[in-house]
Design a protein that fits this description.
Blueprint (H helix, E strand, L loop, with lengths): L14 E6 L3 H16 L3 E3 L7 E6 L4 H17 L3 E5 L5 H7 L5 E2 L5 H11 L23 E5 L1 E2 L10 H5 L3 E2 L2 H13 L4 E5 L14 E4 L2 E4 L2 H8 L5 E4 L12 H5 L6 E3 L7 H7 L5 H14 L4 E8 L6 H14 L3 E6 L17 H24 L5 E10 L2 E6 L10 E4 L9 E9 L4 E5 L3
Parallel strand pairs: 1-2, 1-3, 3-4, 4-5, 6-9, 9-12, 13-14, 14-15, 18-20
Antiparallel strand pairs: 7-8, 10-11, 16-17, 16-19, 17-18, 19-20
Helix pairs in contact: 1-4, 4-6, 11-12
Bound molecules: iron/sulfur cluster.
Length: about 450
């Protein structure tokens, strides 16, 4: 006998008021946004009355259209107060925010995803397991116990070897409340480790002017430090990837010392020679970076640093390369990925003088890897005898393996627990380290 599920309790769907100005293209944009919102259960209204949020799709083609758009924003604020602006005039966020600082979000034309995210931030959609085709935490391709959390798209830098900004555009951060709500859903769904990703995690929120969002009843700024503080409240591992070495990265180190987020930083330094860094259009004060790394390790002695480097960049001399090796000896990077420079269609570095012959690149790459191996060996050997926290990734009849704070999935090492079958995927256990090689460690679970 089958049983019909009991009807869900009636809930009032959130209401979105819409003002759509401008040409047919803008109208189609509005339709696409509203179709998506409607599919998510929102009710749509052409009035401000009772709307949980008002969406103003603007036009900025002529001066008169701009005036009309600004007037419509003013009216929506006066009538309702909770206003999100999108459309052509949205490309001039500064102008809108100057005139109406109380606007909740501004997005440009065709930014459907961002508009929908902004609406979610102000008036979250209803969810119910009987109605939703996808689980609340979304569909993920990672195992159940860890998940990637994308906080922004695009990049404001113009590194000469990279074409990402021309493909993905400038930095576009997700509203902070939206990011935090997604992280919270993941934690509730059983995720034990959140990996924060973007093209440039430390730039998070710059494009939003660090606009505040509401989370757990309080304002949170769209800024890396504040985001990390909030993520640290979820009680899961939080790991930062793709951090550009801005000075304010120093602010998250105390959060690592307090264990609010993992003491792990993935910073692609790319090189150490000021001349090469300048040609790469990267920050070139590596002496200062060394001081900062020393300071970070004073605050958080178990900090793991992962980085990537390019060898054989155009113009790199033997002296530049030697400088990189010496810098690595000082910096004691824990996990290192190295790439031989290659031209990428469309990248500015292709036109630089002094391209390095393949044979030299190859030889430098091997020297770099051998140099790093000695550093890694010593750093891994120092773990023997210590007790570390391990998140279990897989268990079978012969034992289990997982990862410690120092190991991101897919790119770093593993912790092997030979013969240990009394653990389950997603468990966090304490392990005493008995043996280590260049990348991995072996140990036994400590049971109190
Ligand atoms: S390498 Fe990274 S920081 Fe530089 S332009 Fe590309 S995405 Fe941006």
């Amino acid at each position: 006998m089958t049983r019909t599920p009991a009807p869900a309790p009636a809930q009032t769907p959130p209401k979105v008021g819409v003002v759509s100005l401008g040409c047919p293209k803008a109208l189609v944009d509005s339709e696409r946004i509203l179709t998506r919102l409607r599919a998510e259960g929102y009710s749509i209204s052409s009035t401000y009355d009772g709307a949980d949020v008002v969406l103003v799709n603007t036009c900025g083609f002529l001066d008169s259209a701009r005036d009309e758009s600004l007037e419509a924003i003013g009216e929506a604020i006066a009538e309702n107060g909770k206003v999100i602006v999108t459309g052509c005039l949205g490309a001039e966020a500064g102008l809108i925010r100057e005139k109406y600082p109380q606007v909740l979000a501004v997005t440009g034309p065709h930014q459907y995803e961002q508009v929908v995210e902004a609406v979610h931030g102000v008036a979250p959609p209803l969810s119910h397991p009987f109605f939703d085709l996808v689980p609340e935490q979304g569909i993920r391709l990672t195992p159940r116990h860890y998940a990637y959390l994308k906080i922004s798209e695009g990049c404001n830098h113009r590194c000469s070897f990279c074409i990402i900004p021309s493909m993905r555009g400038d930095l576009a951060s997700r509203p902070v409340a939206d990011v935090l709500r997604e992280a919270e859903k993941l934690a509730k769904a059983g995720v034990k480790e959140i990996l924060v990703i973007s093209q440039d995690t430390s730039a998070y929120g710059l494009d939003l002017r660090h606009a505040e969002g509401k989370w757990r009843g309080r304002p949170v700024k769209a800024r890396m430090t504040e985001l990390c503080e909030a993520l640290g409240e979820l009680g899961v591992w939080v790991r930062l990837h793709y951090v550009y070495p801005y000075p304010h990265v120093d602010e998250v180190i105390p959060l690592m010392a307090e264990r609010k987020i993992l003491p792990y930083l993935d910073i692609p330094f790319q090189h150490a020679s000021p001349t090469v860094l300048k040609a790469m259009r990267r920050p070139a004060n590596q002496e200062k970076v060394l001081d900062r790394i020393r300071n970070w390790r004073t605050i958080t002695p178990d900090l793991t640093l992962r980085s990537t480097f390019i060898v054989g960049f155009p113009g790199e001399t033997e002296a530049d390369f030697q400088l990189l090796l010496d810098w690595l000896t000082e910096a004691q990077i824990d996990r290192l990925g190295a790439f031989k420079y290659e031209n990428v269609t469309g990248a500015a570095a292709n036109e630089l003088p002094g391209h390095v012959p393949e044979k030299v690149k190859e030889e430098r790459w091997h020297r770099l890897m051998a140099h790093q191996q000695a550093i890694s060996n010593a750093r891994m050997a120092a773990k023997i005898g210590s007790t570390i926290e391990v998140l279990i990734d897989e268990v079978d009849d012969e034992g289990a393996f997982g990862r410690s704070w120092a190991d991101a999935p897919e790119i770093d090492g593993c912790v092997y627990l030979n013969g240990e079958t009394d653990v389950a995927e997603g468990d966090v256990v304490r392990v005493r380290v008995a043996h280590a090689d260049n990348y991995d460690v072996w140990g036994e679970v400590v049971r109190d």
